[in-house]
UniProtKB/TrEMBL annotation:
GO terms for cellular component: cytoplasm. It holds the Pfam family Acyl-CoA_dh_1. Belongs to the acyl-CoA dehydrogenase family. This is Acyl-[acyl-carrier-protein] dehydrogenase MbtN. Residues 231-379 form the Acyl-CoA dehydrogenase/oxidase C-terminal domain. It comes from [Anoxybacillus] calidus.
Length: 381
């Protein structure tokens, strides 16, 4: 059943986007996984066709598209492969900060290029010593005349190699009594003196996604690159992390649906003991259980997307969706690989890649333990 928020124009858009991906992404994805990066050229093609940040205001080059378009884009990208998540991160996680908290000048300078694919963005919160405990970051930004001098290190940054524009979470007031009150967001541009990138990190999965370390050694960032107000960074993050978690839930739900389809097709094809594997009752029950969990996830997710589109507060529910759907997708991945037998462990079968790609969804955008902490807090326990 189609979600209530999907209308005729979204169907048309999905068809067009799918055709684009069939031509420009599916044939090359395996190669990108081997190379460990998605070429910039692909980003530019996405931009040329209007598939980057279509929600941005028309005056900056967008289409004012509603969030259902973002859902379609993220679902279709995930169907190609989980490594496409960096594009969803740019579209629906990073650029929204610029659009919401940027000054008019910042928006005019950067948004059109984010839409055309000339600028690829990233957000750098995590440090080697601080991930879940965001208030514990140690990267500092000290005001010196017309600049901030930034010192510190970030790690695990999605789009870290490609990124031209990075929202860096810094402490502008390291002495703030409540640690989160000293946090600000600075926009660091590619050629900033004192900013360097480390190696492209080798990961268990998401092989085509470029993830990197970033280093700041007396990096000179113009004061006008402050995003929003000084000291408000933590609040901005808390606001925008909701959509980030929703995007991760959408990707994980889509991955579960893809894995189910692959597995169903496989067991209906494969023969053992003179029957199709799908004819064994134990296999049927496992598929029935998977289908049930997937349906539960989809129903909850679609309701949540609607609430988000209405601008309602989704903090508790999105935390529930993020942990439950990503754990469900992990269960589906494990079952799917098992039901593929030895072939499931072979790289030429898509399920192998899906199996190693999915666990990170329970880790990034706030770990699933952090999601439960948020839910528990809002239960006023
Ligand atoms: C592929 C990938 C891409 C990423 N992309 C980005 C990015 O673009 N930008 C960015 O800023 N970060 C990114 N991250 C970082 C990611 O958000 C962090 O890894 C994550 O938030 C967890 O932080 P950590 O790794 O420091 O783990 P830790 O915080 O050290 O946690 C270790 C374990 O302890 C648990 N834990 C911590 N505190 C508690 C508690 N109070 N109670 C119970 N359990 C607890 C955690 O849930 C986890 O299981 C990425 C990570 C990966 C792997």
């Amino acid at each position: 059943m189609t979600a209530r928020y999907i209308r005729e124009e979204h169907h048309i858009f999905r068809d067009a986007f799918r055709k684009f991906l069939e031509k420009e992404a599916y044939p090359y994805f395996h190669e990108w996984e081997k190379q460990g990066i998605i070429p910039r050229e692909f980003w530019r093609k996405m931009g040329e066709q209007g598939f980057l940040c279509p929600w941005v205001d028309e005056q900056y080059g967008g289409f004012n598209a509603d969030f259902a378009y973002s859902v379609v884009i993220n679902e279709e990208l995930e169907k190609v492969g989980s490594s496409m998540i960096g594009i969803g991160l740019h579209n629906d996680i990073v650029v929204p900060y610029l659009s919401e908290y940027g000054t008019e000048e910042q928006k005019r300078k950067w948004l059109p290029k984010c839409i055309s694919g000339e600028i690829i963005t990233a957000i750098a919160m995590t440090e080697p010593g601080a991930g879940s405990d965001l208030a514990g970051i140690t990267t500092t930004a000290v005001r010196d005349g017309e600049h901030y001098i930034v010192n510190g290190q970030k790690t695990f940054i999605t789009n870290g190699i490609h990124a031209d524009l990075i929202i860096v979470v810094c402490k502008t007031d390291p002495k703030a009594v409540q640690a989160h009150k000293g946090i600000s967001l600075l926009i660091v541009e590619r050629d900033t003196p004192g900013f360097t990138r480390g190696r492209k990190l080798e990961k268990v999965g998401l092989h085509a996604q470029d993830t990197a370390e970033l280093f700041f050694t007396d990096a000179k960032v113009p004061a006008e690159n402050l995003l929003g107000e000084e000291g408000k960074g933590f609040y901005y993050l808390m606001e925008k992390l909701q959509q980030e978690r929703l995007i991760v839930a959408i990707a994980a739900q889509t991955a579960a649906e893809v894995m189910f389809r692959l597995t169903k097709d496989y067991v209906k094809e494969r023969t053992a003991f003179g029957k199709k594997v799908s004819q064994f009752q134990t296999v049927q029950f496992r598929l029935a259980e998977m289908a049930t969990e997937i349906e539960l996830g989809r129903t909850f997710l679609d309701d949540l997307i609607e609430l988000h589109m209405k601008g309602e507060n989704i903090v508790t529910k999105v935390s529930m969706a993020k942990w439950w759907i990503t754990e469900m997708a992990k269960r589906v991945a494990a079952e799917s690989m098992q039901l593929h037998g030895g072939y499931g462990y072979m790289e030429e079968y898509e399920i192998a890649r899906r199996y190693r790609d999915i666990p990170v969804s329970a880790i990034y955008a706030g770990t699933n333990e952090v999601m439960k902490m948020i839910i528990a807090k809002n239960l006023e326990l």
